[in-house]
Amino acid sequence: MESKVVFSGISLPSLQRSSSPLLHSLSSPSVKVRGNNPPSYSISLRYCQIKCKAANTNTKYCEEVSEVLDINWDDLGFGLTATDYMYVTKCSEHGMFKKGELQRFGNIEMNPSAGVLNYGQGLFEGLKAYKKEDGSILLFRPQENALRMRQGAERMCMPAPTVEHFVDAIKLTVMANKRWVPPKGKGSLYIRPLLMGSGSVLGLAPAPEYTFLIYVSPVGNYFKGLNLAPIHLIVENEFHRAAPGGTGGVKTIGNYASVLKAQSAAKAKGYSDVLYLDSVKNKYLEEVSSCNIFIVKNKVISTPSIHGTILPGITRKSIIDVARKEGYEVEERQICVDELLEADEVFCTGTAVVLSPVGSITYLGQKKEYVNTKDGGIAQKLYSALTSLQMGLTNDNMGWTMELK
Ligand code: PMP
């Protein structure tokens, strides 16, 4: 007699790749049967294992008891790992985004004349979710990402989700992919919201339709252990990232394609990244390709002020508040490139890099090295204070974290 195993109402022999969130990565399941009174089944899939118990004679109902991901949490880098679900919703040019839905993570279809493909009408965001020891998941200031996306959308002539919609969509997407949130101390789930002109346009104009999409990927700790690995920057003297009146202050996709040339050249010479100067005087610090910059001199912390050409980083804003709370003086002001020579410490901040000390900066062929003190200096103190909050290791008296259960 042929046994029939049912998982969530789906007969195993006819299981389709798309039939279940857990089974989307199914290649060929192996089924082991143990005992016969009643028999228990263990179905091993690529990313998970499902154990089932027979209910009675013909039909056996499955109960999912474990989800074992075939993933080495110690080996995570900052690359894309395909997860289960993405969130998608669309709206028209003058419309409002309706509550979207979760779809299987995968390719999306777009007309070749979509606004985002032809004219770069697109924005993205980036934030992280961390798992606590008790299994709950923490988001860090998602409302700030929502607000920044709204500001960017205004600049790029796009409708944007409300803050509430954005945050709800993030929560839904994270919870649907919760098995991909790395265990405590192993990394985080990187969350990438996208807003794009998906409708077709041929003449230059705002697209007639927009897509708000969120996907996620587990990523590794940028820094292993307590010792923060210093990065090495080169000051870019020819190319500029942004100009007054341009779009440097919003997270539009074009800002990133345009830094690739300088960044690739810097990497080819062994530098970690590029530090940009202002495009008017070519002498004031702006930011790195994907993070903000701080300098420390005599325990006073300074960072370039925000005036439209620098991305207002959420980590930057948080570090300023954390530093002030720890008793440091923090200045937001114009910083001349010459001040790098006098600085005691330099560090960068961003969602991906968290807080990264700078080991050296090269400007016009002259290399300034920053001494890595034994205790890691102010950068280490601020890194610990910020990550303790983000990972739920200390009491969140700033009200910045949002717990998901
Ligand atoms: N500057 C740029 C150009 C960035 O892309 C980022 C990353 N979003 C940052 C700064 C840091 O912003 P945040 O701290 O919000 O990640």
TrEMBL record:
Record's keyword terms, sorted: Amino-acid biosynthesis, Aminotransferase, Branched-chain amino acid biosynthesis, Pyridoxal phosphate, Transferase
Protein EC: 2.6.1.42
Lineage: superkingdom: Eukaryota
One MF annotation (Gene Ontology) recorded for this entry: L-leucine-2-oxoglutarate transaminase activity
Pfam families: Aminotran_4
GO BP term (any one): amino acid biosynthetic process
InterPro entries linked: Aminotrans_IV (IPR001544), Aminotrans_IV_CS (IPR018300), Aminotransferase-like (IPR036038), B_amino_transII (IPR005786), BCAT-like_C (IPR043132), BCAT-like_N (IPR043131), BCAT_family (IPR033939)
Reactions mediated catalytically: L-valine + 2-oxoglutarate = 3-methyl-2-oxobutanoate + L-glutamate; L-leucine + 2-oxoglutarate = 4-methyl-2-oxopentanoate + L-glutamate; L-isoleucine + 2-oxoglutarate = (S)-3-methyl-2-oxopentanoate + L-glutamate
Cofactor(s) named in the record: pyridoxal 5'-phosphate
Keyword Lipid metabolism part of the UniProt annotation: no
Keyword Ubl conjugation: no
Chain positions found as N6-(pyridoxal phosphate)lysine: K251
Family that this chain belongs to: Belongs to the class-IV pyridoxal-phosphate-dependent aminotransferase family.
Listed name of the protein: Branched-chain-amino-acid aminotransferase
GO CC entries: chloroplast
